[in-house]
Specification:
heterodimer, A: alpha+beta, four-stranded mixed β-sheet, two-stranded antiparallel sheet, about 25% strand, globular, B: alpha/beta, Rossmann fold, six-stranded mixed β-sheet, about 20% strand
Amino acid sequence: MGEETVSGVTIEFLSKKKLQEESFDEKVDSIITRVKENAVVVLEEGWSPEEERYLIEHAMEEVDEEFPGIEFLGLNERDSKIHKAKRMFYEKVLNEKYRQGITIVGNSRVMERVKKERDAVSFLAKLEEEE
Amino acid sequence: MIGRLRDFFSNLFSAQEEDVSIGIYGPPNAGKSTLSNQISLDLTGEKMSNVSEVPHETRAVEKKEKVAIEADGRSIDINLLDMPGITTNVDFKDFKEHGMEEDDAKGRAKEATKGIVEDVKYLDDVDACLVIFDSTKDPYTQVNVTIIGNLEDKDIHILVLAKKIDKEEEDTERVRDAFPQHPVLEVSAKEGENIDKLYEEIIGRLS
């Protein structure tokens, strides 16, 4: 018996451990592939502004008639001085990325009413209407 | 020793001779091109960008070089860069809703995405930024947080401008609350309100 076809949005949660197995470039490639298939990906890690900028750039390069791009949200305390100090310490002293927080990436046709606050984020996961 | 001193003064001199690049950043339709035109018309007598109600009218970086700004008896030459609006998605279907034919809408979407990639790369090359927010909309979006975060990480001068302040639904306080670490200047390019104050701020920070 085949699997029953159900319409919906897949939400994938990727653990910190799993994310450590990939380089950043591989991670972005794999996220964009999943997002193109209408999944919303929730990462157990925060990204730096430069990494977010790379995500925007990469997503824009992938835009075509079928894929309009992404919505993404970072939930971290980046505005706080403590977060900035920790990030500096990790990058300058430990030579590694400070990854506290979560990052959510989805197809912009799926993620609507995206709302960002300092300590909360939300969105409506919508199924695209058939034309 | 003499050689090092000569290099030092040579570098100092060339640094002073280089014009300062000021990028005008912000979301699509925030009023970046209206402001660019206001500044360019005021200081050079020429417009620099087209303006439209349809998003992504500016799809490549528009540059006006050697624009002389004067205020408080001081003057600097700047290169003014009107940047495409940064967003994370460009759906050609949105342009069709503005009455465009399908092929034109697809072409505009393609150009817009190229413009955003160019725009994002330029974040490394500007000396200062005017970050413009439409004061009728929520400025605390992920894209705006990302842009400001990148500029802060590179220690690039930032001046936040709240535009469309003549609209009934404007909420400049929301702009101030979103990025309290940066000064906010209220401007109306259409009315020319506070443009002189903007020149003073630029001169004060960069000269």
